[in-house]
Amino acid sequence: MLDTVQADARAFGLETADKSLLIVDDDRPFLQRLGRALEQRGFDVTTAESVSEGMTAVKRSAPAFAIVDMRLGDGNGLDVVQALRDARDDARAVVLTGYGNIATAVTAVKLGAMDYIAKPADADEVIAALTRNPDERPEPPENPMSADRVRWEHIQRIYELCDRNVSETARRLSMHRRTLQRILAKRAPR
């Protein structure tokens, strides 16, 4: 079993002795699933469910790698990325988010994140981002979202940010309330 874990780690370019990894996410099932998957691939995983827990983990022992959710219940995950970069120059971090936009992606990279990945992300995608050469460009997605799907995702994010209040969501999107209700009643486009 140990040989297969080491072989998987080598396949992803993890030849370094320090495979310490911090995962910060407030979605407990996702956190546990990702943590188990990365442990099976040779990482020494520590988990945290908030910015404060993540900051404490970084202060206790700054890991070589980190996977941090952008939006957490008690603040912004970029604070954890910044603390990690301050504590350890060679640390590699990836920011995960369900609320992607260009401004936050640029900020994440400026703070030292290796990549910015939209949820849901699988373990192989995260490892590839963590171990990628900083000068190497990621491949474009094989199946990018359609324009209709991107629009639908945006509406769903705003709807969730408004605590599922249709009137407030319609106001923020400059959309008629009935139009929004029809969109919300439909299935997600492909």
Automatic annotation (TrEMBL):
<protein>
    <submittedName>
        <fullName>DNA-binding response regulator</fullName>
    </submittedName>
</protein>
<keyword id="KW-0597">Phosphoprotein</keyword>
<dbReference type="GO" id="GO:0032993">
    <property type="term" value="C:protein-DNA complex"/>
</dbReference>
<dbReference type="Pfam" id="PF00072">
    <property type="entry name" value="Response_reg"/>
</dbReference>
<dbReference type="GO" id="GO:0000156">
    <property type="term" value="F:phosphorelay response regulator activity"/>
</dbReference>
<feature type="modified residue" description="4-aspartylphosphate">
    <location>
        <position position="69"/>
    </location>
</feature>
<dbReference type="InterPro" id="IPR011006">
    <property type="entry name" value="CheY-like_superfamily"/>
</dbReference>
<dbReference type="GO" id="GO:0006355">
    <property type="term" value="P:regulation of DNA-templated transcription"/>
</dbReference>
<dbReference type="GO" id="GO:0000976">
    <property type="term" value="F:transcription cis-regulatory region binding"/>
</dbReference>
<keyword id="KW-0238">DNA-binding</keyword>
<dbReference type="GO" id="GO:0005829">
    <property type="term" value="C:cytosol"/>
</dbReference>
<dbReference type="InterPro" id="IPR039420">
    <property type="entry name" value="WalR-like"/>
</dbReference>
<feature type="domain" description="Response regulatory">
    <location>
        <begin position="20"/>
        <end position="134"/>
    </location>
</feature>
<dbReference type="InterPro" id="IPR047772">
    <property type="entry name" value="ActR_PrrA_rreg"/>
</dbReference>
<dbReference type="InterPro" id="IPR001789">
    <property type="entry name" value="Sig_transdc_resp-reg_receiver"/>
</dbReference>
